Amino acid sequence: MSNEFGTSFFRRAALLTLGLHGLLLLRPGAPAVLAQSKPASPREALQAYNQNDPYEKLFLHLDRSLYVGGDVLWFKAYAVEGTRQRPLPLSKVAYVEVLDAAQKPVLQGKIGLKDAAGHGSLQLPASLPTGSYTVRAYTSLMKNFGPDGYFHAPITIINTFAAAARPAADSAAGYDVQFFPEGGNLVAGLTSRVAVKVTDKTGRGVAAEGVWLDRQGQVAARFSTLKYGMGHFDVQPSAAGAPYTAVTRLPGEQTATRQAPVVREQGYVMRVEAPGADKLLVTVTTPGDAPEEVQLLGHARQRIFAAKTATLSGGRTQFVLERASLPEGVLHFTVFNARQQPVCERLVFRRPAAQLAVQPQLDNNRYGPREKVTLTLSTADGAGRPAPADVSVAVYRLDKLPAAPAADIASSLWLTSELRGVVEDPAYYLRLPDSQTEEATDNLMLTQGWRRFAWDKVLAGTGAPAQYLPELNGPFVEARVVHKTTGQPLGGVAAFATVPGTRVRLYNAMSRPDGRVRFELREVYGPQKLVLQADARQDSTARLQLLSPFAAQFAERPVPAVPLLPEQYREALTQRHVEVQSQAAYFGRKLRPFALPLTDSVSFYGKADENYYLDDYTRFGVMEEVMREYVPGVQVRLHKQEHSFLVSDKPNRRLFTENPLVIFDGVPMFNIDRVLKIDPLKVRRLEVMTNLYIHGPLTYSGVVSYTSYKGDLGGVAVGAGALVEDYEGLQWEREFYSPNYTLPEQKASRLLDLRNLLYWNPAVTTTAAGRKLEFFTSDEPGQYQVVVQGLSGTGLAGSSSVTFDVRPQGLAQGK
């Protein structure tokens, strides 16, 4: 409970996933980077790196993608290991944030994960301005590899109390035109494929066309964009040096002029083609005729699937791969020269052959107000066999308001989590392939490449970063011990953290040379007070500074557009406004309840050797009298005007010679004179450990623990050097409220039911026989959508949706 670096025991599933090297990497006291000898080849280097690189992903199923101020945002978190996309029961905490357009967090929360899943909610303040926001989520372990690998999903929030700001008019400066040579290089005399991507200031692809002009102003190549503002063309640079000039015609008869990528005199050009359905051809060319050995390394999600060597003949060589032998998902191909330097890189996407087939079936397609809906769910694998899965279900009303596209679990795990930046309509790339989809997918791979590591570090044998460890039991609290005057970090200082309460919990750590300490909190939920302090007996000048557990780095993403809300949306906006306000007015009390989790009530030191409930004894008005009269295991001594406690060391039949650990509601008190000034009438229980107690890196000469009636320190102030902070623990689980209209008197209730979100269930487990769910419609007519997302234990991900209508009474017939 108190170990500075957290527990060293992994769940069996995590051990199988990470292997021995992963365990060594994450052991207590592990260095920030696990060093290793320099590998002999790129393949060996990547294998060694992958063994030390636990790969974790998160996906969040959001109940909707459009909200109004005052709504509750509900979500389900799925944690998977990135290699096989299977549930990964490793991290026990997920960090969820809502970011505004400037990437500033407006809401943050810590969500508990159990068995690779968790769920929570965020109440959206009514004061949030209308705009496009981003929900992002990550674990502590994921922070090692940067924000590009976090889960991101766009949402729209509308403030129905205020008018939306009008966006600025488009201009050529608001468009981004980028060119990406295949493999990374343009080399004089060699034909290269070049991808182009044109987006507006919100990151959405736009239709455009243009030309590349050489230094004489002659057209060297023409291009045009296809799906989502992406396209490609071929060009053969004639000379190295000054780049081409790219002139692009944009919407609205605007023109953008950019410099094209630089042309090199020497280098390598890579080309990937699929001459047939069963082959993949990788061609490498370079100027000159000198023979040279080059290597092709293919890897995907920590697995190496190709490692081939060939010799350039006449400046050219080819690698042929069988497509059936390639793994699914985003594949990375890297070419190395004879000096084992990476010289070209390219991404290829192979669609997963099988996804989780989610089949939601309704008992009807039309319902009346307050009528029961029966939904039957079944899940199957690619062959149609039943595949039990963990799924989440949302049922909400469709309206005309402009909503951001919802994220789906399959495209997130297979595609967007492997790429950098925003991918428009990622589900499009997982649909049944045709020539247009294949070309669009290849353009995407050419323009949005990214990997979780840098080749120079891999080849040098540096190892995977491990600054942030997985939170295996609860959230870490990190702080820095510094000198109170100079602010310089202090190493080797004992530090303590506690959340005062009747449940006595204490965490300790020794500060590292940089002053950092880490405490692993367990079973801490909701808003609390956190007390951090150094051992004043060891160093009275030491102070603690609390560090935020939320990531301070943000992925580069375009500024989303402010939603346009013309007059045509007035009726829909008014309706959403009334829905939220009526919910708060009529069902406010039922929307607020949280399910309090069961927690261990035993103190951190276990069962005490001596236990006193002071109400069972004659009450004294002075604590010193209580200790002398009722507590034989503790002797009170006075020496040089200072009191001390000497606890009996019963196993050795002697007295300890040093003060014990003395705590009040879990907060250490290092001055015994202050302890004796505690009002005994505020103390309910007194416990004593009459033996040597080892607690993490520290050893105590016994423990004396006082507990107040309310866990509030009985009005006693903490020590002068202590830091008291408001602390938000793991989120309490908010209960989703859905009325029951089974009985006639319930259905006849006069309370207006204008729920927009009819049903939310984040914890549904399907079986071979399927799963039946029931809920009731509201008084709000319209079309409703059922969205189901899920993940099987074998890593199959899938989603599906179905719609139904709710009609006013008397019009819901003819089902």
From TrEMBL:
Domain of life: Bacteria
The protein's name: Macroglobulin domain-containing protein
Organism (species): Hymenobacter edaphi
The organism's taxonomic lineage, starting at the top: Bacteria, Pseudomonadati, Bacteroidota, Cytophagia, Cytophagales
